[in-house]
Each structure stands twice: as C-alpha cells, then as structure tokens.
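job 3f2a | input accepted
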Amino acid sequence: MRIGIDLGGTSVKAALCNDGGAILQRDSVPTPVGDPDGLRGGMKTLALRLCQMEGIAPDTVSSIGLGLPGSLDKANCRLIFGTNLDMRDVMFGDAFQPEFSCPVKLDNDANCAALGEATAGAGSRERHMLMVTLGTGVGGGIVIDGKLYAGCNDIAGEIGHMVIRQGGEPCNCGRKGCLEAYASASHFVKFAERALDAGRESVLSINKGHLNAKMICDAVDAGDALAIELFEGYCQNLSCGLANLINIFQPDCIVLGGGLAGYGEKLIEPLRRLTFPETFRCETKNTRIVLAALGNDAGLIGAAML
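job 3f2a | predicted structure (306 res):
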C-alpha cells in the first residue's frame, strides 16, 4: 500500500493506492495556508484516516509521497518555498512519525501528474512519456523508462520555459518568448483582451475584463472570427513547442493535461496536424499526442508512486 498527497492552494488531497496505482480510499482537508505545523499535522491526520478507512495498520504502508508546488529540496524532503502557500523551509521527512516508519518522498506537482499518467493513465503502456500541462502556466514532466527524469539538480522538466520566439512575449520567469508566454491559459486570455482593447469586434467583448480560456473556446465553437484567429495562433505556438520536444526526446507519447486540454479532440486534432510535419519521423513507430486520462487524480497517483 502507498499513500499519495497532493498539496494545493485550497485543499490537501490524499489517497491510499495499491502498488499498481489504483485508488482504494481518498480524503481531503482545507489547506492551512501560512501554517506549516498545521499542514504537517493535517497530512498525518489524513494518512491515518485513510488507513482507518481501509482497515489497515499504518506500519503496512510502504511509502508516502507528496506532490507540492514551489521550490523543493528533494534529498532532504524539504519545501524551500511554497508557491501561494506562504510557507518556507518546511520539513516533511519526520511529519508522519511515529505511526508511519516508511520512506517519505516529495516532488513538484507537475512531475507527480506526469508520473501518475505514466503509471495508471494515458501513458501507462509506454516506456517514455512527456506530460505538458496547459493551465495558468505551462508545466510538465519527463518520464524515461518509467521513472521521472530530474536532471543533475532535481529541477528538470520546466517545459514551459523553452523559448519558442527569441525576444518575444515577456514570461513570468523573467525571460522572453517562452512557451508559457504563448500557450498558457492566462496568456491565451491576455491575447484576447489585447485584441479587444485594439477595437476588434467579437462576442468576447461581452465578457471583456472577465474572460477565461473556456469562453474563448466556446466562441470558437460559435464561429466567432476573432476567437478562431486566437485559437489558430495558440495551436501554432503550442505545436512549435511540441515539435521541439518530439525532436529532442522522441517519446512514445506526449500527454496533454490541464484546463485547456478539456477542449478535447478539438484541440488535439489541429495540434497533431501542425506538429507532426515539423518532426523527424520513422516508418514504423512515432510519437503520439494524447489527452490525459486521470484528471485531478494524476497528481495523487503520481505522488503515491514516488
């Protein structure tokens, strides 16, 4: 048995999984923002509650994994700084003692989502997989031979900060032209608001100042000219990043997750059409682009598999 814990800005979710990644029990509590001791205690309470729900002893749990947002010291199981959590320098290695004597590991939430999809989701039948998450930012994870690739300093996988346009749009990381600055949901909306400010006519003007990515996709479905133009540009930019990833890694598949992936095949089909002509191809087997299968459970399962 394994326990996975996914720490978010509003809730701490936990799941008890078997060794194949199937969720047996789940529970959650609100995130105690700014309260490290409350967070450590809440995680331990969740872990104990899961064991009670399943009727097992805590000492039968083989590992506990944590998926956290922010900068991490993985070797020492330490959160250096938690994004949107108002927490610094939080140790988790001893947070589950004395009831649990198993190893405790942590990784960032995007890597956990990638490992979850590789274990029990869209990439479960593949050896090599990349995940790209399309949300407020563009995140990702690299899975090689079924294991997360972390690099020499444990921070590999910043897919969103590959530059696709030299000197382009400013990114929150401080660079210009990053994939995230063109393919995140927040920048998709930013481009729409910019067009409306320039006087472009569109049904989107009804929600000007309060737009989200789904509204733009709905306007695409309704045949709105500006929305279609924005979406086509979005797909062209994202396909540039995906083609780069394929040419470098040649993974079995790239799994797309996050809020914008909810547009489904309407997003995947143009991405395949635009991406594959820009990649090195083989006559036998080539990279597939697929949708994530686990939804919000990906991070939980991936944390449990750490």
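job 3f2a | Helices lie at 36-54, 109-120, 180-183, 185-197, 213-221, 225-249, 265-275, 297-304.
job 3f2a | closed
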